[in-house]
Amino acid sequence: MIPAQFDYARPASLDEACQALASDEDAKVLAGGQSLLPLLRMRLAYPSTLVDVGRLPDLRGVHDRGDHVFIGAMTTHDEVVRSEVVTAGCPLVALATAMVADRAIRHRGTFGGSLAHADPAGDLPAVVLALDAVLVARSASGEREIPAAGFFVDYLESALEPGEILTGVKIPKLGAGWGFHYEKFHRTAQSWAIVGVAAAVKRSNGAITEARIGLTNMGEKPLRARATEAALRGVELGDQVRLACEEAAADTSPPADLHAQPDYRRHLARVLTHRAVRTAAGSP
C-alpha cells in the first residue's frame, strides 16, 4: 500500500521540532521509522505532517550520570548494545536490546522510538518497567519526567501528550548483588515476542531479597508480575522459586492471535519467568 499524503518537516533543533509539533496536532514524530513506516504503508496511521528528528544530535548518545544511565531517544538499538556504559550500568537493557528483531532493524530502530510506540509485544517496554526507569519528554512549554509505571497507558498508547517528544530515558543503576536476564519466546528473529520476561533479582546469603519482573505481550500494555515478585521475597533457589513463578500470569489479560491463545501465553509466562529468575539469580 501507498501511505496517505502528508507534509514533511526536518527541524534543525529540538526547539524547532517542538514548535512543529505544537503547530499541528495531527503531526507525528519520525525517528528510526521501523514501527511508524509499516503503519503508514498499511494506512493505519494518518499523520498530516511527519517531523523527522533523525538528525538532531541532542537526542542521541549514552551518558553515565552517576546513579543512573541516560539513553538519548534517538540512540539506535545497535549503539545501545555496543555501549560499555549500558553493559556496566544497566546490563538488562543490553541483554534485551540485543534480542530486538534482527541486525538490520537494530541499526535503524531507536531506543526511544520503541518505547514511544508503546507496543506491549515490544521487548523494551517491559524492561524499563521492571527497572523503574524514568522517561523524559519535551514540548514547546517545557520538559517533564514520566515514571515508566505511568508511561504505558494502553495498546499503542503512551502518556506522551500532543506536541511532546520523548528525548531520553533515565535508567537507575541497581548496584551490587543484582542479576539480570531477559527470556523471550518468538517464532523468528524478526518476529515480535509471543511472550517475554525481563527479570532483575537481588540475592543475599543465598536467598532472594528482591525481584523485579516485567512481562511482554501479556496484556494491553507491559506489566509487572507483582504476585511473583512478592512470592519470591526471602525464597532460596529450588522448588520454592518454581512455585512462586506459577503466579507470573496472575492479573494478566494476554491476547489471542494467530500465534498463541491466552492459555498458552499464560503457560509461557510461568515457564519463562522461572527460567529468567533462575538465570538472573545465578542458578544453572
From TrEMBL:
GO terms for molecular function: flavin adenine dinucleotide binding; oxidoreductase activity. It holds the Pfam family CO_deh_flav_C. Gene3D superfamilies: 3.30.465.10, CO dehydrogenase flavoprotein, C-terminal domain, Uridine Diphospho-n-acetylenolpyruvylglucosamine Reductase, domain 2. SUPFAM superfamilies: CO dehydrogenase flavoprotein C-terminal domain-like, FAD-binding/transporter-associated domain-like. InterPro entries: CO_DH_flav_C, CO_DH_flav_C_dom_sf, Diverse_Substr_Oxidored, FAD-bd_PCMH-like_sf, FAD-bd_PCMH_sub1, FAD-bd_PCMH_sub2, Mopterin_DH_FAD-bd. Keywords: FAD, Flavoprotein, Oxidoreductase. Residues 180-280 form the CO dehydrogenase flavoprotein C-terminal domain. This is Xanthine dehydrogenase family protein subunit M.
